[in-house]
Amino acid sequence: MKAAKYIVEFIGAFFLVLTVGMCVIDPGGAGNMAPLAIGSALMVMVYAGGHVSGGHYNPAVTLAVTLRGKCDAVDAAPYVIAQVVAAALAAAVVGFLKVGENFQPLVVDVMPAMLAEFLFTFALCYVVLHTATAKSNAGNSFYGLAIGFTVLIGAYSVGSISGGAFNPAVAVGLGVMGLLKWSDIWIHLAGEAAGAIAAAVAFKMVVRDQS
Q1: DSSP readout, 76-114?
Q2: pTM, whole model, 2 decimals?
Q3: What is the CATH number of the domain that holds 171?
Q4: What is the pLDDT of residue 1?
Q5: Residue range(s) defining the domain that contains residue 139
Q6: Nearest CA among 187, 144, 125 for reference residue 40
Q7: Residue-wise burial string across 51-62, b where 16 or more C-beta atoms lie within 10 A, e elsewhere
C-alpha cells in the first residue's frame, strides 16, 4: 500500500524535526549533546521505517535516491510533501512545548553556510546510496547507524556555520521555529539540492553494478 510509505516518511520526519527543536532550544535543550540526540533520532527512525519507505525523511535524500533509480518518480513528490508537512507540524509542536522561550535565529554567512550544507548533504546522500541502495550491501544491519552518524558528524562539524540541517524539511522546520530566517532558507535549499545531485553522480561513477 503506497499510503504506508508516505505515513512512514511523515512519522520519521516528524520525530527528527521534533528532536532537533527540543534539543537545540534552551532552556532544557541538550547543549553539546544535541547532535548525538539528533543523529540517534534519525538512526532509529531509519531502522524503524527503512523496510517500508526506504527511510528517507529528507527531500535531498529522496532526490538522490530517485536519481539513482531506487525511488519511483511517482513517489518522489508525495515523499517530499509528507516530509515537509511533518517538519512544519513538528516545529509547531516544539513551539507549543517551548512556549515563552526565546527562539533566536541563526545568523549565517551565505557562502560558508551554503558550502557547509552542500558538503554534508553530499556526505549524507552518498552514505545512504552506498549503505541502503547498493546491491553489494543488501541486507546489511549497519545502514541506519551509518546514516545517523553522518548527521551527527555534520552537526558537530558545521552546525555553528549553517545550523547543520542537511535536509530541506529540517530547514523548513527551523524556519517555522524561528531558528532560521525565512530569507536565508534558500541558502540551505540550494546547497542541499546540489549536494544530493552530486552524491547521485558520484555514486554512479564509482559503483559498477547499480541493479
Answers
A1: HHHHHHHHHHHHHHHHHHHHHHTTT---PPBP--HHHHH
A2: 0.96
A3: 1.20.1080.10
A4: 67
A5: 2-206
A6: 144
A7: ebbbbbbbbbbb
